[in-house]
């Protein structure tokens, strides 16, 4: 819309159109002409931000689906080759251990390089891993060690990709759309977790076998890389200088994470929650089989769904479907109660949901389990968006990677402890203790700034200039009058 500076006068423009120099433009406005409309180029970032949403959401839905196809395919391939359960665990371990080994380093790499290029490289590397593995299976040259190496490489690239995508979003999506985009990505992760492994199992059981599953997996990452090529930055960011040492760069990211109160408490809360809830997640299949199986009398034509592995798969799929409903309303909840409270509410829902699973002891426990899945989604949406909003762009890669790594660091310990505790106490007491402990974490988080202080929409750098320089955050230049006073 045009903006009038003064009452317009009946004047015709001079030959040559609108004035070009600042002085002529000022004179033009004083004479009563309307201000020249903003050029179309000024609207380009807004249009580009909207155009970026489709490729990101579609591409990452396919990429996440590929992640969970691999989550099932690689360990099962090792088990088929050796027949030893320990090798199956080794493959699963190889996929997840890169988070702890390379999580901190990934942040420094992301802040030094162009993030979109890193993401495309990670997708192409994962596609190549699965394509080569498919060839080795087809030529009967595959060996267990090769599969474990592929799992480790895939896990390493996934660490780089997941942290990079979260850190890149503020540069390619409008700030007001971050919650919505993060909610859609979390929904895609939940659905992929529910159906990716089942899809892989069906494909492997079919005539194509492991080769078909691996080729499909490779294709998902190729499509994701192709869609990322269509994503353009709307807010270019300054990159970390290569002259800054790795140790110094990492320290600056950790310093910011420690000083920002919302991120500090959210990271601590995620780490403790993962510690107390990891046993429940690791033992879910066993809990469904021993405590919930056979509690429903279906009609004869549905009996095949409620027997053996099919019943376990149905439970996991239904809990994900119910949890997806909660993710659909996540953006509205975030706008109404704020990101910090959404985070706390998510942790509480996780504990309450699985307390209900423990108490009901029937297949209908899938309903409170779905509430727990919704809680996980709320935590993820709030946590990711929080990091994106309050972290300065030059530190986003390091802060995101450090926060994710610290959040996940206790998961292996919690899972291992849960197995020993189930042998010693029984699986039901483990579920009861884990769900109550998760609710206790939520109660304690409600006493922190996450609940009582709103999360700012932008970085609030109220620190001294020296502190900002120490952490590598660009400081605004101070303009000075000739007299020596600040402007």
Describe the structure.
It is a single chain. This protein has 487 residues and is mainly α. The protein folds into two domains: 49-239, Growth Hormone, Chain: A, CATH 1.20.1250; 253-454, Growth Hormone, Chain: A. Helices cover 72% and strands 0% of the residues. It contains 20 helices and no strands. The chain has helices at 22-30, 44-82, 85-96, 98-112, 115-138, 144-172, 178-205, 209-228, 246-259, 261-282, 284-292, 309-328, 330-337, 339-360, 366-390, 396-408, 411-425, 427-445, 449-452, 465-470. Helix 13 packs across helix 14 (339-360). The longest helix has 39 residues, at 44-82. The two termini are 33 Å apart. The relative contact order is 0.12.
